[in-house]
Specification:
The chain is mainly β. Helices cover 7% and strands 35% of the residues. Strands 1-2-3-7-6-5 form a six-stranded antiparallel barrel. It has a six-stranded antiparallel β-barrel with strand order 9-10-11-16-13-12.
Length: 300
């Protein structure tokens, strides 16, 4: 996985950045045995890169990963704002294969970024609304701030989740709040099954080679440049050319054929998430059209 950066490394990197007068946030430091928590134990800070279509407004930096403030098409200004990152960035530890976390208390804080990657302020979670690494790799936090409060206080609007399946060839931007870097490339295609260690993800997005995401980019929103909406969430890449091991996902096609693409990076689609949230941004895994995995106790 585009693994989270380790706490000690993050502190060192951020301390050095502060001395240099930069605002850089570090990747989530990779934990031992963590699936490709985008990655490298001691990455050098990448140079900043921007696109005309996409900026950093609405993205956040976590202690070890990237993320974004997101809204559903039906979200209202006074709804509690949601922050999205990877399941493997969860502060309580990576969910096991098949595990689903819902309504878990959290006080995690997020550094909210401005358009130019400056620090707008801090928002805080009240709970983990949903988290899993099964079929997808996502955590959605409910925060103590409403969308209206964030906009009024910081002038920042949430990023909207698209409800359409992403399209092959679409120009995209992977926006890392941790590194304050934007990676631009295209959707190369889709992977029926992506396997990494004990985890399996379905219908994953494969990037073209230009998106060389690294550790700490985990949880970055993947923005469709044409619409400005979030179409996926960055989560992994094959580092060493190994087959289906941690940090080395493999692709499995419809016929069960396994292939390995060293240096290729991936994301998990998010277009199905809005169907699982109802009025007031409340999670409803039984809603019509919701396909997110359910906790074992509630599976019918």
């Amino acid at each position: 996985m585009n693994r989270p950066l380790v706490g000690a490394l993050a502190t060192a990197v951020l301390g050095a950045a502060a001395l240099a007068g930069t605002v850089g946030t570090a990747h989530a430091a990779p934990q031992h045995g963590a699936p490709h928590a985008q990655r490298h134990l001691a990455p050098q800070h990448p140079s900043q890169q921007r696109t005309k279509a996409v900026d950093f407004a609405g993205t956040v930096a976590l202690s070890n990963c990237s993320g974004s403030v997101v809204r559903m098409p039906t979200s209202q200004p006074n709804d509690p704002a949601l922050v999205m990152s990877n399941g493997h960035c969860l502060e309580s530890g990576m969910p096991d294969p098949g595990e689903v976390v819902v309504n878990q208390r959290s006080s995690r804080s997020f550094t909210l970024l401005t358009k130019s990657a400056g620090r707008a302020g801090t928002i805080r979670a009240t709970k983990v609304a949903y988290a899993t690494m099964t079929d997808t790799d996502v955590t959605l936090y409910e925060t103590s701030s409403t969308y209206a409060q964030i906009e009024q206080k910081y002038g920042i609007k949430a990023l909207e989740l698209a409800t359409d399946h992403p399209v092959k060839g679409a120009a995209i931007s992977v926006v890392s709040g941790y590194w304050k870097k934007i990676y631009t490339c295209n959707i190369d295609g889709f992977v029926p099954t992506l396997k990494e260690g004990g985890w399996t993800w379905k219908d994953s997005v494969r990037y073209t080679p230009q998106c060389k995401t690294i550790g700490g980019t985990s949880g970055s929103p993947v923005v469709d440049n044409a619409t400005g909406k979030v179409t996926a969430i960055n989560n992994t890449g094959n580092e060493d050319g190994e087959k289906c091991t941690v940090n080395n996902p493999c692709e499995v096609d419809e016929n069960g054929n396994v292939t390995v693409h060293q240096g290729t990076n991936y994301a998990e689609e998010t277009y199905g998430i809005p169907k699982c949230f109802g009025a007031g941004n409340k999670l409803d895994l039984n809603a019509a059209g919701c396909t997110l995995p359910k906790p074992a106790a509630t599976r019918g």
